[in-house]
Amino acid sequence: MGLRYERVLAKALPMAKHGQWFEFEDKYGRGFCQVDLMLEMPRGILILEAKYTWVPEGHCQIEGLYSPVVEMALGKPCKGMVVCKKLIPGMPRELEIVSDLESGARALASGNRVVLHWLGNCQLLVDYNKLSKAA
After folding, report:
1. 2-134: which CATH number, 3.40.470, 3.40.1350, 1.20.1540, 1.25.40?
2. pTM score, whole prediction
3. Which distant-in-sequence residues (6+ apart) come within 8 Å of 33 by Cβ?
């Protein structure tokens, strides 16, 4: 169900790069990672990590792997949010849960960890120009 959700998300954001692979080298040696979705914005890259059900590891993947690798590879600042269909009881209160990309971009700009709660059955992005200004 998770891969299906990711594909639906990618279809809803045709301007996003889907499934981009990166090769990197760190203290452990050579490695590879694949970012679910990336949106190029005027001020940097917005990474979207698709999860059918929210898990804290999504934020760790963005912050500990994808953002540093993408920033180094593309030479642009990166921020990311987890996009999920199902929320779970007991999610940390410091998470900012939003229902649209524009609100999520504003929350990221404020330094918050963001979860975009998207059910997959409604339009995700109304105006790319508004999102560009927020991100």
Report:
1. 3.40.1350
2. 0.88
3. 21, 22, 24, 65, 66, 69
